[in-house]
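Minutes, methods subgroup
Present: GH (chair), OT, SY

1. OT presented the first of two proteins processed in the latest run. Sequence and structure tokens recorded below as shown on screen.
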Amino acid sequence: MALSDTKLRTLKAGDKTFSESDGGGLFVEVLPGGAKVWRMRYRIGGLGAKQEKITLGNYPTYSLAEARSWRDDCKILAGRGLSPMALRRGDAIPEDAAPAVKELAQAFIREWCLKTREKVRIKEEAAREADTVEAFARRWYAEIVEPANSNPRNVKRVLDKDVIPAIGAKQIADVTVTDILVITDRIKNRGADQMALQTRNVLKRLFAYAIAREKTQFNPAAAIEAKFIASAKSRDVALSSEEVGKLLRAIYQSSMKRTHKLALHLLILCMVRKS
């Protein structure tokens, strides 16, 4: 039974590789990892000849219509005694081939060998661009940080100011512990130890998400213990006895209502916490 785009889209990977035929030797092979690969079997010289198998590429990079056009061109070549697999491999066109056959072979190389390589190259470059630190950080910020935080601007500032300028062009899987330390050390040299620690923590969360999305297997920020960057400091301030005295005198010398002065004095005496 011939394939359809609907059937191709709904094919689910299993524990083992399996294939679905479109007829005429063309079939799509579904790998356990989910890839769907166009392949074709054919014979040169009739039923008794050795069977060859050639690969076009993945679906949907190559559509069903393109795969069928490729199959037809392969069958024409095989019918003229030429091996599409050999041409794809880069073998020379036989010198003794008829001019019309040579022309068919050259057209096949242009359409299905050179263009295929270029298509694969473009796809690989696009995948690499999507896996740079900058591209992945933007994705993480949009998908994870913004929806989960009422005020995500601090994270964005860390990314834009210190992370992306330093390692934005690197592949997420290529970032090392040294790269993280260079960033945090540069921030510490500005006298901003706490910001260096915050940046390390942001990077730790970013790479945890990258691991979850199977972009890398290592979290270089988590490999650096926080104590080696800076010690977290509490925002709470404890007033000395002298400072408490100054505060009370300032309260009673102010122009606020007496009831407010007494209320503030009571708060200080009871040591009421902000929480």
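2. SY then presented the second protein from the same run.
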Amino acid sequence: MTAGTWVAALDGGGTKTAVALADRRGEVLRRPSGAGCNPQDGSGWDGVLRTAVTDALDAPGGLAAMMLGLPGHGEVPAHDAATLALLRDLLPVPFEPVNDVALAHLGAFGGGFGVLVLSGTGSMAWARGPAGEVRVGGWGDLLGDEGSAHAIGRAALTAAARALDGRLPQARPFADALLPGLGSEATGPFAPLTWLMAQEAGPRPALAGVARQVDALAQQGDETAAAILEEAGDDLAWAARTAAQRAGLPGPSPWVPAGGVFQSRAVLAAVTDRLGPPSDPQLSVLGGGLLRAARLAGWNPDAAWAARIETALR
């Protein structure tokens, strides 16, 4: 058993990094959220990760162990090596870095069989079954991420651009409703491009942010918006079915949704129509991470401890 009052879990993503700590009694501390920490998005990721880890280490009483779900982990060897070097330099306690979707699956199924369908800035399906653990998707915005917030935003601006130049006249009402809501930069004959080039955070998070407006327009009855979300649901279900098959599962159920895109009732309904009703996760991402961190620390946490931290995290 390692010394220290707290264990920590980090849930990193493309646009946000969240950290929580828990002690042996099941009391929880939430730390301030930071920006995304994906090395594939360019510079600055290491500063976000360093700040998050250092903040956890500064908790009164010290840290006993840390579990980290990191975006893109296991995909690019050079990025993994840089991340591991940083963590080894910072953390004098047991720690375990995994892909952020693997951490979400751990929380959702408690290490059991099932399919985790993630759709946030990016997208991926992660399945565990008799044939092992597999992932489908998660290729990034240039090669994939179908069904993600980025993909929804990109499809929306593409439809708007085609409506403006006459190739998709039926989407003109959609463009006229979408573009004013983007801000003052979305004006003129090239409004989608003008707006995108003005986004200081870069195109990936900017496009992901458009997904919320698409969902709002779909709720108002816009047919183009509804079609974009229906396609996103189809893409996510496709990934889930493929992951289930490769993991040796008889079907894509049980499945659990994760990520901000599933706040859209239209996307959730589209995936449910194809896969069946989703299951409730056993634990949240941070809850699963804290449970694993407690085991790394040698605390032998029980179900009651896990329930207490999950309640505190809500």
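Chair's summary of item 2: Residues 3 and 64 are 5 Å apart (CA to CA).
Next meeting: continue with the remaining queue.
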